[in-house]
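Practice problem. Given the sequence and the SMILES for pyridoxal-5'-phosphate, write out the predicted structure.
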Amino acid sequence: MEQDAIFERLLHIITNYRQQRTTDCFVDYLEPDELRQRLRLDEDRGHGDWEALFTWVESYLAYAVKTTHPGYVNRMWAGANLPSVIGDIIVACTNTSACTYETAPVSTLMEKYMLATMLKLVGFEQGCGQMTTGSSNANMIAMMAARNTAIADIKNRGLFAQPPLYAFVNADAHYSMDRAANILGIGTDHLRKIAVDEHGRMDTAFLEEQLADVQARGGVPFFVAATAGTTVRGSYDRIEPLLALREQYGFWLHVDGAWGGAVIFSEELRRRFLPHLEDADSFTLDFHKMLGTALMCNVLLFNRHQDMLRSVCSAGDESYIFHGGENGEVRDLGTLSLQCGRRVDSLKWFLDWKFYGREGFAERVEHYLELCQYAEEQITRLPELEMVVPRESFNVCFRFCPPKGIAPALFNQQLRERMHLSKRALVGTGFVNGELVLRLLITNINVDKPEIDRFLAAVIEIGQELLQQKTGLRNEDTMRRS
Ligand SMILES: *Cc1c(COP(=O)(O)O)cnc(C)c1O
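Answer key:
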């Protein structure tokens, strides 16, 4: 009885929160010291006391970032699709681990169904896949598969007394590649960062030189990753020239589509941004980014390697937990995973897929691209703003142009902080060719043209405020000196 009332109260709180998730400010921002005091974390209230517990819940919500708010354009994800939120609530209530069929029968079948659907959609034949904890881990598992393919007995013998392995990625590739090289014993010095062309894509002539150089020195070029949508610029590495190089050097070709892989649902965008994807060896895509599924929701797919995940990931004596399937079919998805306990991510994935379908996701991604184009047009039109580099896809890299004599990097950094502290908007930054840019990402279904207009107007307003303050200070300075 008591628990039922508590659940009702919870639903009430959630409902209230959801009603305000796109209004007011996107955050009530406090510096850590002040927030710590307000939260009174060391107070001993809460033991068995539901009232006290709900005050913690209320303070969590009061200072949480409303990622659904249109002012939140900071990261590659924002808000979450309602079907996936439903899935996550059910998952929390049912609390199980998606490692065995016994403990997670429905989830296991849903995951397998979704993996088969994605393999087919991507065009990977005789493949396999798994949901991982995100593209960082997916990239690592892909690199691990490449490593174990390059040196057959590495799983038993390790990297001792082996020829040195080398991996190659776009100079702007995600930092998880460096992590993977570290974790897998490859070493970050053996991760060659390939310089990019003017579109931010790997320069394949330079890559070829590097491959030849490594091979000439007795190294093994075992892994090349194309990035489909680089973090800052949104550039798509071309896959076709890499396929030709793979013929020659025999490396594993992975496609990191964490961000930009979402184009696969739209035939037109796939043709434009990701031709030849079906010939890669592996591919990762985050559903929790552009597609809006609740964090975390990732899929990693292998082409033509039906047993690869099991041979790469399985380890030790698993007999106490995993029980084989029929006809060599995998029954327990945990055998393919680097985890033991696995959160059920498949329900929210499945619900989103059924609710929106391929067409729904295609429309969403196409619409985001149109909005990015709109934002670029506005930035080009507005005299206070400029694109730092032309847009490659979904990332809009721009800045406020201060007058001569004021360094744009520092100015835009300050502008960004001021936007945040004044609770107007949270926008990301990055570096392109050594220049600091404001990186606008549209990955929120509550953002449309009016929200973009409002955002850009806020950048200009705050930029001018900042400028006034700076020139005011400078004038005072001159006056004092004179
Ligand atoms: C976000 C991102 C990653 C990391 O993905 P997580 O799911 O956050 O671990 C890797 N690569 C690229 C290109 C990304 O955009």
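Check your answer against the key. The two ends are 78 Å apart (CA to CA).
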